[in-house]
Batch of 3 targets.
Target 1
Amino acid sequence: WLHRFESEALENLTARYFSHYKLKADTTFVSLEQFSHPLYLRLFCEVQNPERQVEKEVYVGEQDMFSVFDSYLDLANREMANRANKPSAGRILPKMIDDLAQRLWNDNARRLSFSEAVELFDGKTLASVDWNESVTKAALDAELVIARDVFAGEEGISFTFDLLGGYAVASVVSHADLRRFRRVTRVCFPEVTHQSCNQDCN
C-alpha cells in the first residue's frame, strides 16, 4: 500500500478513512489528489483525530502537506517517548529523523544498513543494544516514519514515505548547495518535486 491510489478508487477510499477516523468533511468541490498517496492519507487522518473518540469537522485543502508532517511527527514523538519510557519533551524522534536525513544526504543514499541505523540512533552496536528498550525499535513501532526492509539482500532502514524523507532532508540541509540537494532528492526521493525543494530551501 505504498503505491498511489487509482483515481477511480480515491474518493471511496478517502471516505472510508474519514469514516474510520470520525472525520466530517465536505469534499464535493475540493481536489482529493493530495490523498492519492495512501500513507499521506493516513498521516492526515491521524493528525486530525488521533483518538477517534468523537466526530471532528475538517476542511480539506486548508492544511499544507508540510504542516501535516510536522503535526504528525509531534504526535509520533509523544507516542514513541511513551514506548521508550522517555520524556516527550526530549523530542527523540525529530532528532532521529534529522540524524537519518543528514546521514542519507552525506552518503547520497536512500537507506542505511540496519546495523548502521542502530548505531546512529542508539549509539550502540547491534550486538550490544537492548533491542526491547532501544529507540530504534520504538521508532519502527511508530510505523509511519521509518521502516525496516531488505534491499539487495541486506536489511536496512529508510523513511517509510518518500515525501517525508525528502522533507526531512530539506529541513537539515536548508541553505546548502541547492543543485546537489535537487540531484540527491531526485534520485533518492523521486516524489519530491522541484517546487517542494524550492519551498523548503528558500
Target 2
Amino acid sequence: EIQSIEEQLKARIPVSNYEFRLHPYYIIKTALTRSEIIRPGAEPTGLLYRNIEPIYNKSDIIFVQGKTKWRMQGRNVREGEQPLKITERFIGQKALELYSEAQTEPYILKAVDGKLPVNEFGNVELFTGVPEGCAHINEQGAWRACKALGVEYKHAVTGFELKKGRNVAKKEGIIILKEHKKDVLKEWKIMKHFLFTKKLTKN
C-alpha cells in the first residue's frame, strides 16, 4: 500500500529543533520562536521527542507580541488581559509581556472633548494615521507658534528606532486639534519670516 505524502510526513518524527520548525504538522515548545506559544488547553499528539518532550500539532501555534506592536497594527490589548508569554530582554530592561490577537480590539484614536489622544508617555501615536479631529504638522520648530498662540500640542510618534541597544520612540512633528491648524500654520509662517530676517540682520 502506497502512503500519501501527508501520511509519510506524519509518520516521520523530526530529529532536531530545526526540523520541527520546518515540519508542516509537528512542533515542540523548545522549537518555538519568541513570538509563538502553544494554544492554552491544546492537547499533545501523544508522541514524544526523544522520549521526553511532548509533541504538539503545528495548528495549535498562536502568534503573540507586545502591546506596542499591536498598537502599531491598529489594535489595543483589552484592559484586564493577562500576558500569554513573558520574555526576557537585555540586562536592565523590563521583561516583555506578549499577547495574542484574540486579546486585542481595534485601536481607534480620536480627539474627545477637545483633548488630544495621548499615550502613557504624553505623545500621540500615528501608527495607523492621524487621529480623527487632529492635524499633523511636520515642520521643525512649529511648536513655537503653538506656544505663542496658547494652542495645546503633543509630539507625534511615527515609529521606533534602535539607539544604544534600546527601542526609542521616533518623533516627527507635532499634533494639534484640527480646528487650530490654519491659525498655527499662519503664525508659524510669520515667525519663520521674522527669524529669517533677524538672522540676515545679524550677518
Target 3
Amino acid sequence: NATDFGDGISLSSNNSLIINNTLGSNTNGQGVDIFGVNNNILNNTAYANRQGIKLSLISGINNTIKGNNVFSNNQKGIEVISDNSIIQDNIIRDNGHPGGYSGIAIQTNNNKVINNYISNNSLNGIEMITSANNEIINGVINNSGKNAIQISGTNSDNINITNVTIRNTNKSNYDLFFVDATQNNIFITDSYIENYSFNNTA
C-alpha cells in the first residue's frame, strides 16, 4: 500500500504497477520511492520533489522505470539502488539545481539505461558508483553541468555504452570521466565521445 513518509508514493511491495500519476512538491521526500521486486513505474510525472524516482535497497531487483517525465527535482532525477532494473524512455531534465546532483545515479549491478533523454542536470548526466555489468544504450545526454557520464568505484567493471549521443557537456569537464582509473572492460560502441579522462588524466 502507498503510505506518506514525505514521499508522493512510498511503496514496499512486489509486482506493483504505478502508472499515470503526477507527483510534485514533496520537498522532503521522493516523488516515488519503491522497495521490492518486479515493480513497474510507468508514464508518471515527478517534479519539484527532493528526488524524482528512487528504487531503494539492494535487495530490490527486476524493477522498471519507463516513460516518465522527471524534472526540476531538488536532488537526483532517478536513483537506482536495485539490481537488474531497466530505466527506459524517460525524460530527465533540470534536476539538482542549485545543489549539484545527477540526472540518473546507479549504485547497483546489471541495470540497463535505454533511450532516455537526459538534459540540463546540475551535476552529471549519468553517474555509476561501484556498479558492474551495466549498459547505457541509445538516448541523448545534453548540457550536463559536470560530466555527461561519470564512473567511479573499484568494482565498476563491464560497462557497455552503445549508440549514445552526448551534446554540450560543460567544457571544463568530460563526456566520459573515470574517477578512479581502476575500471576494467569498458566497451564504447557507436557513441561519439569528444573528451574523456582517467582520474583527471585526459
